[in-house]
Every structure is written in C-alpha cells, then in structure tokens.
Known about the structure:
The chain has about 210 residues and is mainly α. The chain has one domain. It is built from eight helices and no strands. It has helices spanning about 1-20, 30-50, 60-65, 70-100, 105-130, 140-155, 160-180, 185-205. Keywords: Membrane, Transmembrane, Transmembrane helix.
Amino acid sequence: MKEEQDYIRDIAEIRSMMERSSKFLSLSGWAGIMAGIYGLAGVYIAYSVFHFYPVEIFDSTIGSGGISPNLLNVIVLAVIVLIMAIGTAIFLSHKKAVARGERLWNPTAKRLVVHMAVPLVVGGLLILIMIAKGMIGLIAPFSLLFYGLAIYNASNFTFEEMKILGLTQIGLGLISAYFVQYGILCWALGFGVLHIIYGIYMHYRYEK
C-alpha cells in the first residue's frame, strides 16, 4: 500500500514539473483585480470628465478639425491605464514567481508575450487608423475584440480559465460593434468587471 502511495506521489510530482515547464503559472489573481479597478476608473474618467460616449461609428469632426482635445485625453488616459495594469501585473507576478522559486522571465513567458503581442499590436495600429478616419465608435469594439484574441492566445501558455475570459471579451466586442451606443458600457464590463471577477476566482482557486 505504501509503495502504491509513493508511486502516485511521484507521478503527481512529475506531472507538476511538466506543467511548470510548459505553462506560465506566475500570473497573480490580484493583478487581474487591480487591472479591473484601473479599467473602471479609466472608463469613469473617460465618460464623466472627458465626455467620451460615442453613439455612432463616424465622428465628422475628425476629418475637418483634427482630433479633439477630449479624444486626445482619452487616448492618453488609455495608455496610462495600460501601463499601470501591465506594471502591476509584472510586479505581482514577480513576487509570486519568487515565492514559487521560479524565474518570471522564462521561455514559456516569452512565448506567452509573443502570442499576446501580435493581436495587441495589430489591434492598436488598426485603432489608430480608425481614429484618423473618424471611426470613433469602433474604438471600444475593436479594443475588446483584439484584447480578447490576445487573451485567448495566451491561454495556451497559462491557465485554461483565460480562454473563457478571452471569449467573453470577444463577445462583448461583437455586441458593442453592433450596438455602438453601448460601447462605453461594454468597456466597463470587459476591462473592469470581468477582470475583477476573473482575478477573485483565480486568487481563491490557485493562491489560497
């Protein structure tokens, strides 16, 4: 009986080692929670302070008078929120990796970053093109769509639960593309509420 228990334990340890070598498991649930809080704060500022709530796809003022100061402020705000979210994720994931006795920047992490970067960079460039063309109403849908695709790609190298998060973001992007007037609400749900729910779930499942 003892030999059988030792055999089962050895198998479990081998499986754990293989998983650590093929999956990036240092993502922190708190990073998701904080990203959601940053996202909600950003949406609130964009809506209430900069009055960003497109109701149509095209904004005729872009072509004639250039980018409005409020839209420029929203772009800067989005970049700040992104930097804060990424910075927090790196900091908390580094702490988790150290606690697990692992390196944060390993071959699996590199593959994860590359597979996330492709849709994020393409999506970011496409959004800049749409801004230049006055297609302001599609900023929210396309940011959610390409972010969802990036998250779905990343799920192959980390927790499987990220597939659900990615698909949900894609779904919100499609909804907001059809109902442009609800784009700011979908932003709040996708980048705010969903991140907080995901972060809480991951924290209590894997970090408690």
